Fold these 3 entries.
Entry 1:
Amino acid sequence: MTTLVVCTSRSSHQNTRRIADELGAALDARVVTPDEVTPAMLADADRIGVGSGIYWMSFDPRLVEWIRGLPDMSGRDAFIFSTSGLPETSLRRYTTSLEKLLRQKGFRYVGAFASRGLDTWGPFGMVGGVSRGRPDADDLAAARRFAAEVQRWQ
């Protein structure tokens, strides 16, 4: 099964890119930004992983808009990954909303992976950030375990 990992990661910390690279290595997948995806890459991919950092309880708008612009992706699997300074809250289920969008595009949704990551946005920056040192070795190992689970869903 051919996997493509599509990631937006802001240059400030590269938290999400580190997770994307770990998933890509474990799944023998190419890791690209939405701007780098070509029609040929989409045609070849049986499974697509999409992820970004979480900004104000939302996925990166560049990633969301890229997904909205996809053609019908029926017959393919998709998974989500993210990094954030704090865990997802019940006030705003951003992973659920992205899952819904993927399903609307015809994907078979196979799961999500979330990791803590250094967050210095807004007031967190005044105190040096939250989730310092993350993603760490344990988070990267958890990403590899998630990739192994994704492999079993073939």
Note: DSSP finds six helices and five strands in the chain.
Entry 2:
Amino acid sequence: MKALVLTEKNSLPQFMEREEPALEHEMVLVKLKAASLNHRDIWIMRGQYAGLRYPIVPGSDGAGICEGREVVIQPGSGWGQDERFQAGGYQILGLPQDGTFAEAVAVNRSQVYPKPPHLSMAEAAALPLAGLTAYRVLFSRCKAQLGEKLLVTGTGGGVALFCVQFALHAGLEVYVTSGDDAKIEKVKAMGAHGGVNYKSDSWEAALKQMAGGFDVIIDGAGGAAFSNLLKIANPGARIGIYGGTGGAVPNFSPQAVFWKQLSILGATMGSDKDFASMLDFVNQHKIVPIVDSVFELADGANAFERMQKGLQFGKIVLRIA
């Protein structure tokens, strides 16, 4: 079969022949029609994950045909029995197991779910990892509710955009930050109440004036900007963290946390229950993932380059013939 293969650290994937995966106990073969990129794939390419091995087929998201049915893949396996956190053996497709940037992938039968019928293969492939992460941090962890004021930082990437889409359908009042004014305007066109450019001076003060304060804040960056989020959180607010692209948080004030009775909640990926609930929510509200661009599998190296440049608004999808 044809696949995109990472052969060494810091090198773009190569389109080449790869053996079709063998099926072990309880495994099924999914003939893939589409897959989508996540920042995880870039970090694996850069060698920033423990347990790396080369060559490997990256990719966590995929949709295709399994045993005659149109399906979408749950990227995570081995969550365990406790809904509060994943077990030690939890794995995400694409490392250490070969992933979805190929004509076929072998997964456990429990990871295969019916594709939402209102979605194309490309749209369905854009959903799993980012949609699951967004659903868990927003609803399972932060318990976002109708009428609450929500801030989503760094809007433009997959998880942040799904948080916006899910929250709008759940009846929240949504605000965003982005480093790109054009992306803010696109999110406002989707129904968000407002947004600010985090590269501007006193962006947190502008948000405070705009919204008054936030009941829920979803952040995927951390870094120096995180302490400002504490200032614009309402008393009793929940702050969900699903990423740390901005690095460690300096000048963290515990006083702001305990005096406002804030909850800081970590989230990564999600359980099978979260995934099933996310699909139900998508089906109920007929939510369509935002696809930034579609590349042929053979052109996957260019898809990786687009993601590295941070130009995308929504998900970058690979079409698999």
Note: The chain has two domains: 2-127+289-319, 132-266.
Entry 3:
Amino acid sequence: MPDLPSHTPPDVPSPRRKPAFWPAAAIFALMGAFFWTIRGTDGFGGSQGGILAGLGWAMLWLGFSRRFGDERRRPYGHGHVVAAILLGIACGGLTGYGVYISWVQGRFHLDYPDGVREIAPWTGYAMLFCCGLHWGGLTGVFMAWCAPRRPLGAAGWMGRLAAGLVGAVAAYGIVVAFPSWFLPFHDEGLYADPANKTCLRAAGSIRNIAPHVGAYAGFLAFEALRRDVRAVAVISIMGLGFALSFSLGAVWQTFYGVGPDLDWWKFWEMSIGVGGGLTFALVFHRFNRPEASAPPRSVTASERVVSAGALVWLATATVLANGLDGWSRRHGVEIPPAFGQVAGILIAAALGFLHLRSPGRMMPRWLIPLALGAIVVAGFAASLPPELRLADQVLLLIYLICVAGSLGCFLWLRHVRNPLATT
């Protein structure tokens, strides 16, 4: 999405104007579907895939902050929010959730695909809810830290971090002390048998997820105790938005064997991306309006060089390198790992050189569309197999619809009159 000039100078308060919520929300959602589906494609996955999705949503967020004007008066319109979104989504990839898909389907495996037992599907939906809760929730935590109602000093930051640590330790301790609350058939001793590899995987996954959920709860409790209503709202909406997207979207996983031979996992991922994108749009619309009474912020060196600088350069280079890796895996072409690493370093260095030579602004105009373009190119490169099956054709068609629809919404947005909204 090109970084167009604001309708008003950045240092002049804007009058009350109509918000352009729906085209912006559609772009967040359509591109979110693309981001999250590519996130799990060959070459990506885990935190690497999280970097792709986080970079994409961060660029849209900053692009809309500029497009709608008064970015320096928007509480979440500065470069540190770019880092918060990018790192928050990437950190979510440190946990896995694949083991719970069979639970949604009503099957519990001792050692996949063997040893099947019947299980209540709600257990799978509940665990996926927890996965989404911490994934979006911790992203919301990092975002909320960028615009506190009352800034914290050193002692306050120690208390904030301690709250998250206490929550993480407490959640982990509960899972370890009471495993039967979270692990089906635990009292039967299934998890003590090393032959039951899928059981052991489930146990490890829950112990991995618990500290993330606990940290989310601890950070949320801290902001509630200090009565930062905006921070509580941002953290809560981001957590619940992703949690519901993860959980409700998992219904696609029940279509295997009863519907067409399509990649229903990808449909689930697309639903997460749509729900996550709409969550970002809601938070942007509700909490990132320019504050007419606030003085315009100055761009700091840490914003320009680190948050909206080095992290974006490295993330863009990583996306391109992973796209090349995904393409090589799909087509059976061997590329030395060092080639991608060197190419990534050179791309990041080139972006940094050009960025820092650009005059003045926190981020040059060209970097946002370039980063989004890199995601699209890497996504299609990693998704194109040598032979297109029906499932591949359907996915590629949907990807094209997401990208083309986003461009169409952006053209619509360009013609929305008076798109600004102030508080």
Note: Strands lie at 107-111, 114-118.
